[in-house]
Design brief:
This protein is an alpha+beta fold. It is built from 6 helices and 5 strands. It has a domain of 124 residues: NADH Oxidase. Strands 1, 2, 3, 4 and 5 form a 5-stranded antiparallel sheet that branches. It is globular.
Length: 187
């Protein structure tokens, strides 16, 4: 498979189909090395990565429950338990954070967030290249101040995604891609 074919055939694996093993420390370092090769205007390196695995996934589930209770105090108990179990869907989660340099003269906040998003995409591609499945998820918990605080993320910064990683227990889905011409215009 060529690199171009690899990129064109990329597909997310639903988190519930990600099992052990997760990347080992050496593989994770390779994956993160690819992530920090993302485009980065003014060399700000506006990304941070928080690796969550093992028992820490249960702690994150508790944080998700508390954040959800604050957002939706009347949520039924079964839905709260669903929030608690989200981090347990895969053996490893890498939280990708946009570490913002406020009022930068060359690089507005939007560009810093986009750079962190590019780092998340590089992370996923590197994980796939090493044979791991991955999916990038967000949802209300990615924007919850309680989650940011629990993870030690400054108020000024943003969670751009929770990247769930593990070994896929299903074949990579065959995704029908749109025709790029439908999204292109020439000026």
């Amino acid at each position: 498979m060529t690199v171009l074919e690899f990129l064109q055939q990329r597909a997310s694996i639903p988190a519930r189909f990600l099992a052990e093993p997760a990347p080992d420390p050496s593989q994770l370092r390779e994956i993160l090395q690819a992530a920090v090769a993302a485009p980065d205007h003014a060399a700000l390196r506006p990304w941070r990565f928080i690796v969550i695995e093992g028992e820490s996934r249960n702690k994150l589930g508790d944080v998700f429950v508390e954040a959800t209770r604050r957002r939706e105090p009347d949520m039924p108990a079964d839905k709260l338990e669903s929030q608690r179990s989200k981090p347990l869907r895969s053996p490893m989660i890498v939280t990708v954070v946009a570490d913002i340099t406020p009022d930068h003269p060359k690089t507005p906040e939007t560009e810093q967030i986009l750079s962190a998003g590019a780092a998340a995409q590089q992370l996923i591609l590197a994980a796939n290249a090493l044979g791991f499945g991955a999916i990038w998820l967000t949802g209300p918990n990615a924007h919850a101040p309680e989650v940011k605080e629990a993870l030690g993320i400054a108020e000024k910064d943003h969670i751009v995604g929770f990247v769930y990683l593990g070994t896929a227990t299903i074949d990579k889905p065959q995704v029908r891609r749109p025709d790029p011409a439908d999204f292109v215009s020439h000026w």
